[in-house]
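Please go through the protein record below and see whether the fold suits the sequence. Record follows.
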Amino acid sequence: MSSLKAEPCPDPAPLPGVTLLPEGACFVVHARHATAVELCLFDAADPSREIARHAMRRGERDLWRVHLRGARPGLLYGYRAHGPWMPENALRYNPNKLLLDPYARALVGVPNGHLSQVGSEGPEVGNGALDSAPFTPKSVVVDGEFDWGDDRPPAIPWRDTVLYELHVKGFTRLHPRVPKALRGTYAGLGHPEVTGYLKELGVTSLQLLPVHQHLNDGFLIEKGLTNYWGYNTIGFFAPHNEYAAAPEAGGGVNEFKGMVKALHAAGLEVILDVVYNHTAEGDERGPTLLFRGLDDRLYYRHSFGEHGAGYLNITGCGNAVNSASPPALRLILDSLRYWVTEMHVDGFRFDLAVTVGRDDDHAFDANSQFLAAVAQDPVLGRVKLIAEPWDILRMDSYQVGGFAEPWRELNGRYRDAVRRFWSGEPGSTAEFAKRLCGSQDIYGWSQRPALTSVNFVTSHDGFTLLDLVSYAHKHNEANGENNRDGDDANHGTNCGVEGPTQDAEVLARRGRLCRSLMATLLTSVGVPFITAGDERGRSQRGNNNAYCQDNEISWIDWSACDEAMLGCTRRLLELRRTTPELRRTDYFTGQPGPDGGVPDVLWLRGDGRLLCHQEWHEAERSHFGALIGGVLLLLFNRGGEVREFLLPGDRACVWEIVFDSAHDSRGTAARHPARHHGTRTCKLSAHTLSCLRLSAGKVSGAGLVCG
């Protein structure tokens, strides 16, 4: 048994979590409706073996506390909470269930779906009477000391930001130049081979799929699958232990810090995809691991009716965290500040951010408790904040354009409009142009800046870029749901032949479409978001919901690469970085500048005349041009035929092609840009985007009239 001595915590009492003191550690946990709470200790050599229990004392703000003299880093612990079993009132206390510390900095083990963890019975019935401690992960006391040296946040301005979404494990799991022991780990992501690739590519900010400790759903365990994406959180302060190469308990904390330090040294930001909208406990049929056993009524949102309390499932995952209640709000804010101040991350992307932004009445409010608290927080106010502006199952679930500054938003309308345009959908040109220009119709009305829009064509949850133009339908058979999961809407066109093919014409068309989609993304006003592997031609074999595929379907295959696509992406990122017109911070006005020159943007037909209002909505409008600042010309041709464009300006104007998606990285237009001097016309291949820069002469507004 443990020889550690329990005694009252010293004053002033520490806040929730574990606070290391010279003579031991103070343990603090919230449980308003509990009648008793016990701190349980476990054998480090055999975490299934409980070695001691210590009663805790209730203090102010519903916090239970105990000081353990002699406690040191590496100690394994958990809690048992006693209280009423009244599910109809959202009270589910059961001392047979070992509970994680919601503030734990690290965990040992992962839940395995054991019967003792699941079920809706009370403490004396069925599974509720089983002790879950031998099968439940344990919280770990962690020493937060780390030598950060001269680490500084890259602090990349939004106008220069290029987001790159990746999975910590999947990005390096097959990397041949990362040491085998480090592949798929935090240390692997910080390896020089990886940082060198990312810097050469030209992205600035890594958005990591969830790295908070998470678990596998029971139904996936039964199928031999895993929750690979990780949107199933049980530890809001703990790095997921399976991504750590370090073998010791809690070793992933310093390994994560080392990764951040290495990425910062390479000038790369670290942004976390965080899941504060729900937890892995699910509904009443799910496991009891933390919130449900500590204070179900306050940590989760409920609907109360004639049949009692039910979990308000606005996330599709069984429960929703009640970010409007004091304990949950405090935990979320404490967690965010911890990852910024202690782990040095540079920002967050909030999964189903609408759920977190709901008020006491469960309605979305741009000034809700959580959003108001973040807006005035001196720590969180200096990092990047990105909202996924929707959740599900309610009338107010879709909130693109509904968040206030300083939030940026994933622009789902941009994704849909760009896909529809390049797939050839009739009548899609007008909205495509709005999205290209920063979506002023969505954000401008509330005085939000042009850089509010996070533009994306693909992300982890959907087709890869190559699959988008290669498959007409999803192929999710490997997920074990008879291909019923995932959205089957595909606006990317399959080029006539679905899946892998050796047809040269089909492959060429796919290549042009991939390059045109990437070029659209990187020439649009807003913040570009690239999914890892799209620049290499990565395929998931048509699986558009690979959340449970922790295997070659999801991992980056470093032995295979579309060099043309990689070269194209690098070239486009360099073009964006060196071209101020592509990194503008305000919306286009369409009005002449102060010098009376051409407007900041002009829309052109193929014959050089201005595109008139009614022509935008022509069903078959397949090609047009955008003259930006009088010096940069974007030409779009989504159709299947070659189109000829009359270039603006007189014969003294020299237009230089700086990018053409018709050519790969080995094309003539890439190495020796073509010049149009005197001829005044430019031919644009089918399904392509071309970017030209005025290198001599000046374009006048004279003669530019509607066709």
Q: What stands out?
A: The radius of gyration is 28 Å. The first strand starts at residue 5 and ends at 7. The mean pLDDT is 92.
